[in-house]
């Protein structure tokens, strides 16, 4: 049983690897810098747990998780994200994650979450779990409220400045499908341009999360 850490920051990967190696010396730690590399590595060796960054170059953490879970429904994925808006937490859980942590957690909390995930339990950072319980999805006021998981994924990619053709390639859908989603997004969010979508992401604090 191994743990696969997927993050595009080498120093962060090194720090997390050192922490987990010290706490769990019997478990091999594998590393991937993006979603495509993670997909290839899991094809060769199925880990016991994937620790997934939300913001990855190319294929996002959400899309990588969906593809991994489609291929291996039993695979456990724990998100570790720089930002932790409740809408992002919900999107990760909807994609099949077994837990969610912000990168502000202590090493002790990270180790506890990994132990829980490896033993088959869900783990959401305490503050996030409390906020989720106190704020039903229907009451959410940020700009992802009411969007489907696929619409939210495309919204975040647009906020990142990703071209429509590139979005289609990353998500393995047609450019026409992306255009249709963009039209629906504009209608749902009551905006008339892609620039206004980016402005909404800025207001909600999401643009920094996907930059």
| First and last CA, distance | 33 Å
The percent range for strand residues is 5-15%
In the CATH hierarchy, the third-tier topology of the largest domain is known as Rossmann fold
The CATH architecture category of the largest domain equals 3-Layer(aba) Sandwich
- Mean pLDDT figure: 86
Structural class: alpha/beta
User: What's the Cα radius of gyration?
Assistant: 17 Å
Number of helices: 11
Strand segment count: 6
Main sheet makeup: 6 strands, parallel
- Strand order of the biggest β-sheet: 2-1-3-4-5-6
CATH class of the largest domain: Alpha Beta
Overall shape: it is: globular
Give the total of domains.
2
Helix content: 40-55%
Give me the CATH superfamily of the largest domain: Response regulator
Order of helices and strands: EHEHEHEHEHEHHHHHH
Low-confidence stretches: none
Give the arrangement of secondary structure elements.
Layout: E1 3-6, H1 10-23, E2 29-32, H2 35-44, E3 49-52, H3 61-71, E4 77-81, H4 86-94, E5 99-102, H5 107-118, E6 123-124, H6 126-134, H7 149-159, H8 164-171, H9 175-189, H10 194-203, H11 207-210
Parallel strand pairs: 1-2, 1-3, 3-4, 4-5, 5-6
Helix pairs in contact: 2-3, 7-9, 7-10, 8-9
């Amino acid at each position: 049983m191994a743990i696969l850490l997927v993050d595009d920051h080498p120093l962060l990967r090194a720090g997390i690897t050192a922490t987990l190696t010290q706490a769990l010396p019997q478990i091999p730690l594998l590393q991937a810098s993006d979603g495509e590399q993670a997909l290839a590595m899991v094809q060769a060796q199925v880990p016991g747990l994937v620790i997934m960054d939300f913001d990855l170059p190319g294929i996002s953490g959400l899309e990588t998780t969906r593809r991994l879970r489609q291929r291996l429904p039993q695979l456990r994925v724990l998100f570790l994200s720089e930002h932790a808006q409740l809408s992002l937490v919900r999107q990760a859980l909807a994609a099949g994650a077994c837990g969610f942590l912000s990168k502000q957690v202590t090493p002790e909390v990270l180790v506890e979450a990994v132990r829980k995930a490896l033993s088959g339990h869900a783990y959401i950072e305490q503050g996030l779990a409390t906020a989720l319980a106190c704020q039903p999805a229907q009451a959410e006021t940020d700009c992802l409220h009411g969007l489907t998981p696929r619409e939210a994924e495309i919204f975040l990619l647009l906020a990142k400045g990703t071209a429509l053709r590139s979005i289609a390639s990353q998500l393995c859908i047609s450019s026409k499908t992306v255009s249709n989603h963009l039209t629906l997004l504009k209608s749902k969010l009551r905006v008339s341009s892609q620039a206004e979508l980016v402005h909404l992401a800025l207001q909600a604090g999401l643009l920094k999360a996907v930059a």
